[in-house]
Amino acid sequence: MGLPDDVQKAASPVLIHEAVAMKDSELPVNVTFRKSSSKDRGCWLHWHEDLEFYYVKQGAVCLMCNGNRDWLSPGDVAFVNWCAPHRGTGFQDHTEHYIIQIGTELFSHEVFSWGPGDSGREQKENLLLLLISQSSHLPRILRGCSELNALLDSIIWEAQHKQPGYEIKLKAAVLNLLVFLLRRADLSAHNAVVQAKDLASLEHLKKVLAFVSLHYTDPKEVSLPALSKRFGLSVPYLCRIFKKHTTLTLTAYVNELRCSRAASLIQDGTPLETAAAMTGFHDYNYFSRLFKKTTGISPSAYQKKSKSI
Fold first, then answer.
1. Which of 10, 53, 230, 253 is a plausible cystine mate for 100, CB 3.0–4.6 Å?
2. Residue 51: its H or E element
3. Containing H/E element for 33?
């Protein structure tokens, strides 16, 4: 992934929005095979609208996603949802893994249906919006799941061999993959009625997220009033679409970005107080409390754990 000029010149790169270049615009599925060693440092912390799966075949991959860090072993799969900040941070020697990226345009018009809601009727929702709204309920790491591995192996094989009708087989495998994820989420409390305007609100939100990813260390720039004025959206509307599509408030999302970036800096050896200051925290005690609340571990414990790897 290339870095913008202003990022290359910076002492510490910002969270990067990656515009994923799909090899086939009509069939937006990228399958990338990678070999890595313990000397590889991985990529910068970044995010994109495309869904992504890390699938380890040999060795091990350390993935940071939304401030959580997990080691993936052979057969393990990590799911990176829409707009989730993430980076590969470490590898074992002789590691082999696949990165599978799926453009949302491939399934953005599909409808997902499930059991009856309060009205007793079968519920239906746009598949993309359901994946986004259920982000916190979807599995992040799936270990040694034969059904999931078979689906990913099918996607890899079809993308590599391109036999007659592979486009249909590939899309079918992707849709089965997404159904697999959603069937592992508890949808019993989800009763949203999606309107066509929700797709427009998603476009508004993407622009807000792109701006926030560059300015999240400046509280004034990413406050609700400032964003409302910049994008011409009312504060109530902005709050509503942000919560609906990310399951987080704007403040919680910004704090997640700041803590994810701080975790990445600490992983790279940056002193704790410096990492806090670089991500917009001027009160270290507040940073420490928020970091632990967000990642489940204190900055000092995270630093100690990073040094032991």
1. 53
2. strand 51-58
3. strand 29-36
